[in-house]
Fold these 2 entries.
Entry 1:
Amino acid sequence: MSKAHFGLVGLGVMGENLVLNAERNGFSSVVFNRTYSKTEAFLKGRGAYKAISGAVDIKDFVNKLERPRRILMMVKAGPATDAVIQQISPFLEEGDLLIDGGNSLFSDTERRVEELESKSFGYIGMGVSGGSKGALEGPSMMPGGTKASYDAIESLLTKMAAQVEDGPCVTYIGPGGSGHFVKTVHNGIEYGLEQILAEGYDLMKRLCGMNCEAIADVFQFWNSSEELSSYLVEITEICLRTKDPEDGSDLVEKIMDKAGQKGTGLWTVVSALQLGASVPTIYASLNARVMSSMKSQREKAESILGSKSFSNSNLGSISDGMAPIMDAVTLSTIASYAQGMEILKLASEEYNYNLHMPSIAQIWKGGCIIRSTLLKRIQDAFKRDSQLPNLLLDPWFANQVTLRLPGLTRVVSIANQAGVPVPCFSSTLDYINSYSSSRLPQNLVQAMRDCFGSHTYERIDKTGAFHTDWIK
Ligand code: 6PG
């Protein structure tokens, strides 16, 4: 029997769909799962009548693969990934390649790349985005590791990936854990975009008294605009129109308002702070999830601190896409991408990832959760100026700020007066106002630091470090 081109460990829904994708693209495959019953069920079900075979144990799995072996691990990030590597390594031979397609912490990937490469195996840490449908039909993939390892799987990945007008949504990201780092930041942006859309929905519901169908109409309008056309806006419309089969009411309104998280948003914010990137919109979205999880405390606090009165505010009409809210959503969306790109730029310098920003924007244009038409503008902006300090400084984005800042300001002010939280909108407004202020009040912070701690300060009229004996 001829050996398989490609191996998969871990038959979760992502693993299943990725192996079906590989097989559909001409790569015969062998699959292994911790419990063989799952392998059997897959081979009898979705994997039947395909060039996919199963393995009873790791040795059998490795033996069924052609050399150099290409093995994709789709297992839980963390100790489970280390356990699979430990289990499989004794059977590998020089040049064999392991690919981790989970949402691993990039520093874990750095360590694993080093360990595996030192044993003459290849190791790729690859972010995969697009959910289960993307995995099957064409995801966006962010592989990092040595270039030689990437070259060994390039033909496989370019066929499996989503395709956009200028090529497949996969590229060599860079060395070490760079692939997982870029995926982490992708997810940080994803957190931002989700919260931004939720804030828009909340304002339309609470301040404008609109029902889910009317709000869905606005999302449909937004999805037809260049600025907001995106996967997340598209699925939000679907979510808002979906009814509870039990009673035909809006399903979204029956869902508990507590958002879960698996870690990548937190890692994005921690990395940003470590790198010195200012990411208030992304941070606000993470904090909003944390706050949402405190449901019972919030219920108690509402009875003590709450009792807000929501007036009917004029925030536009469906036919103009609730113009000021659209301004707020658009600028906050731009800020999320700008902040994510800023993290990538700093990480590229700090970790020597040598990231190519236009290519990252290019592979996010299709397949992934944050795909949007705006990414074409982002790609163009970094193509025009690879050293662009901030997306907001690109002429097209700067013009968006000019056009939409009054709307964002109005929305934040109305929301604040009504007591409706809009953490991402508010943070974006402060972000833009701070970034566009040549003078901030940190002169006074510096004075205080020098006053109590002799930390010294710089002056605007002379060079050097200065200290004043403030308390005589
Ligand atoms: C993707 C997603 C995916 C992520 C989920 C859950 O790109 O396909 O980013 O990888 O794991 O969206 O993330 P949270 O549970 O942290 O929201």
Entry 2:
Amino acid sequence: MKTDLFQAPDYYNIDDLLSDEHKMVRTAARDWVKKDISPIIEEAAQKAEFPKSIIKGLAEIGAFGPYIPQEYGGAGLDQISYGLIMQEIERGDSGVRSTASVQSSLVMFPIWKYGNEEQRKKYLPKLATGEYMGCFGLTEPDHGSNPGGMTTNFKDKGDHYLLNGAKMWISNSPFADIAVVWAKNEEGRIHGLIVEKGMEGFSAPETHNKWSLRASATGELIFQDVKVPKENLLPNKNGLGAPLGCLDSARYGISWGAIGAAMDCYDTALRYAKERIQFDKPIAAYQLQQKKLAEMITEITKAQLMALRLGQLKNEGKATTAQISMAKRNNVDMAIKIAREARQILGGMGITGEYSIMRHMMNLESVITYEGTHDIHLLITGADITGIPAFK
Ligand code: TGC
Ligand code: FAD
């Protein structure tokens, strides 16, 4: 891996709109990514291994529960700081950002928002330090875009619940200590349950042979008559809206994260174009390459402004599901297109692990699919503006 020479583009002086705290948080994350992610990530991705050694550093930069109150071990930051941390981490690798997103928005968030005080005190501080790692089980083999059709279920057995079913494509599951699992009760109502590693009948086999998010561990969750203590049910919200509420938070983080991946591809391509000589001139001197680079910085700038405004709305508690969905869709689509164009600017070198672009490009194929596919997000906007849901 080459030395990390990353320089963040800020074409519209968006830094002027950030507070000192935002910049401080971002600097800490950026420096950590340069020091602890860039040197190891290519090898981890090539080997398809999640580098567990980074968990401590992720906790130290506040990536686990950035906006969770400090009384529960979180960093107590605002939503823009949360976004900036996700941006910097995904600048390094989408798989590492996945680990942080899941821990923060899909595990800590539901325990904080839907759990009781005992559950908050028991799990949140350990999740914030990385002593516990968590995963989020919503998707099933037969229910991806349509989680409301899930068949994973639990029955009331008096002093405990009996959980049966299976989840698929679960980030962090192979090494997670706890899983927030969504399942239907006997009346068909969806509830969240905290399932702990080691419970009899619970297993989490890893999914191998991925060409995307190779530095993130993905797996299944299998429940065969798992006895879950009654105190592990999240009591304060149920119905499909409970997991969808977590997705709002995670999708918001992804809308910032994708900008990080795009910035890294753009910065790499710009530097390469200025250095690479063909026909006696740097390729950056040719109009076709300038068009690519000009379009990239334009799209990055638009995405930065969208994410920042969304962050302001989130801070005010005004961001809607549809606004968050639009930013997730737009910014991931922007990033994957930039990755594809940037790879071409590097010619043959673009396909090697010497540069980060191809890894970003392959990672983004997952990011455009998980947390709601591009199509589902188009339909969310469509339903919002027409008032006519077209999902079914
Ligand atoms: P729909 O009828 O629209 O809604 C069902 C109920 O939920 C309520 N609701 C919400 N409540 C809170 N927050 C939200 N954001 C909400 N959105 C909807 C809604 O009001 C309704 O309530 P009620 O009381 O009337 O029942 O549901 P639908 O079945 O038609 O589905 C809508 C659809 C397709 C948009 C939704 O199912 C969806 O978003 N599908 C995509 C699935 C998805 O995103 N899965 C992600 C899995 S997790 C993941 O990918 C992690 S990747 C991790 C990483 O590595 O980063
Ligand atoms: P499907 O729902 O089968 O969709 C297949 C295609 O059909 C897509 O193109 C889709 O857009 C299209 N489609 C579906 N419905 C419609 C419709 N109504 N109209 C038009 N087109 C439609 N899930 C979790 O719960 N937790 C996790 O931690 C997690 N991590 C993941 C990590 C990775 C690496 C990946 C790849 C996925 C992860 N997921 C996770 C699952 C992810 O959320 C799902 O893959 C995603 O929601 C899509 O579901 P699906 O793969 O079953 O595709």
